Amino acid sequence: MLALVPMAGAGVLHVSDRLTEDERIxxxxxxxxxxxxxxxxxxxxxxxxxxxxxGTYDHMAWHDWALTMGQAAxxxxxxxxxxxxxxxxxxxxxxxxxxxxxxxxxDHVQVGMGGVASSGSxxxxxxxxxxxIQIDFHKPMENLNAVEIKRILAxxxxxxxxxxxxxYAETLPxxxxxxxxxxxxxxxxxxxxxxxxxxxxxxKYRESKDGVETEDWIFGAPPGKIxxxxxxxxxxxxxKEEYAGLGGDTAIRSVQ
Length: 256
Known about the structure:
This protein has helices at about 20-30, 60-70, 145-150, 165-170, 175-180, 190-200, and strands spanning about 5, 15, 35-40, 40-45, 50, 70-75, 80-85, 90-95, 110, 115-120, 130-135, 155-160, 205-210, 210-220, 225-230, 235-245, 250-255. The protein has about 260 residues and is of the alpha+beta class. It folds into 2 domains: about 10-165, no CATH class; about 170-255, Beta-lactamase Inhibitory Protein, Chain:B, domain 1. A hairpin with a 5-residue loop joins strand 9 and strand 10 (about 115-120). The longest helix has 11 residues, at about 20-30. It starts with a strand and ends with a strand.
């Protein structure tokens, strides 16, 4: 039986996804900051644009949003995924930073001398060019990776054959490329490389001792494996794994 979890601030129940922790980390890591070219006009919207996992969507609704709010991307424009949220039976992709302003798109346009349009408004607000796309699976998400998500989005977005993540990873030394592939941190990595390998930590802890400041990134939670990645300055100085059980028993292994 599926567990139903109440949604905050809502009067409905929401089905939890079936993604493993590794799948969730990989999805966020491999989709974040990816670029794509729009194969259709992508409107701005005050709420996520609904898009079904079979590649269908309400064209008229998207058209109406474009008339009301303007476009986040025209046909052929390059856009970027700036945030990934996994929410049970759907995934929300923030595009170009999302929509950061209230009001309508034309509130930020003024017509000057000779009919030339210039951006800006009386109160100097700047319109965001972002939006959100919500991929609806209509069932708990499971067995998903970034390649599959890009395939689902193929009718509206054309992703580069070689992603920004892959291109960056190929510039790393061989031992770091191997660690990234194996989703683990090693001594000598910087913060960006740890994020590439392991995603965002569950917790961060910073302390200063004898004038030396260190920062621990903590991945995982009991019961199970917990990884502590310690930074001295901008580089990893130590990686430690701890296996924590339900009863509080722990086994610590210093990786490096």
